[in-house]
Design goal:
There is one protein chain. By secondary structure, the protein is of the alpha/beta class. It has a single domain, classed as 3-Layer(aba) Sandwich (Rossmann fold). It is 44% helix and 32% strand. It contains 4 helices and 5 strands; from the N terminus they run E-E-H-E-H-E-H-E-H. A 5-stranded mixed β-sheet has the order 1-2-3-4-5, sandwiched between helices. Helix 1 packs parallel to helix 2. The longest helix is centred in the first third of the chain and has 18 residues. The protein starts with a strand and ends with a helix.
Length: 116
C-alpha cells in the first residue's frame, strides 16, 4: 500500500509504502504526481520504505512506466529505509526515476534535503 504522508505540501510529495505494493497503488500515485507536475512544473518525492515488504510482479510494469513518464519532472527523490538493499537500489535505480536521488535512514533528514 502507498499512502500520502501528512508532510506533503505543494511540489513536495511524501509517500509511505507498507506491505506489498500493487498495480492499484500506482493508479492512486500517478494522478497525484501528475497533478502536482501540471501545477508546479516539477516535483520532489519522498518514499518511506521502512515498512515496505515487496512489490507484486503485476506492478513492475507500472513501476517502470512511472519512472519513464516522470523522471524528467522529478527534481529530487528521497528514499528512506533501513536495509542495505534499499541504499543500493537508490544508486542503481534512482537515475531512472529522478534527476537526483538520495537514500536516508532518517525521514527528517530526507525532508530537510528535499526542502533545501
Amino acid at each position: 500500500m502507498i499512502e500520502t504522508t501528512e508532510r506533503s505540501s505543494g511540489d513536495t510529495l511524501g509517500y509511505k509504502a507498507s506491505g506489498d505494493i500493487t498495480k492499484a497503488d500506482y493508479q492512486t500515485l500517478e494522478p497525484a504526481v501528475e497533478a502536482a507536475i501540471q501545477k508546479y512544473g516539477s516535483v520532489k518525492l519522498l518514499f518511506d520504505l521502512t515498512d515496505f515488504k515487496w512489490e507484486k510482479v503485476s506492478a513492475w510494469g507500472d513501476d517502470l512506466n512511472f519512472g519513464k513518464q516522470y523522471k524528467d519532472s522529478v527534481e529530487k527523490m528521497a528514499l528512506v529505509g533501513d536495509a542495505k538493499w534499499e541504499k543500493h537500489m537508490t544508486r542503481v535505480a534512482g537515475p531512472l526515476y529522478a534527476k537526483e536521488a538520495k537514500y536516508f535512514e532518517n525521514v527528517d533528514d530526507a525532508w530537510d534535503w528535499l526542502n533545501s
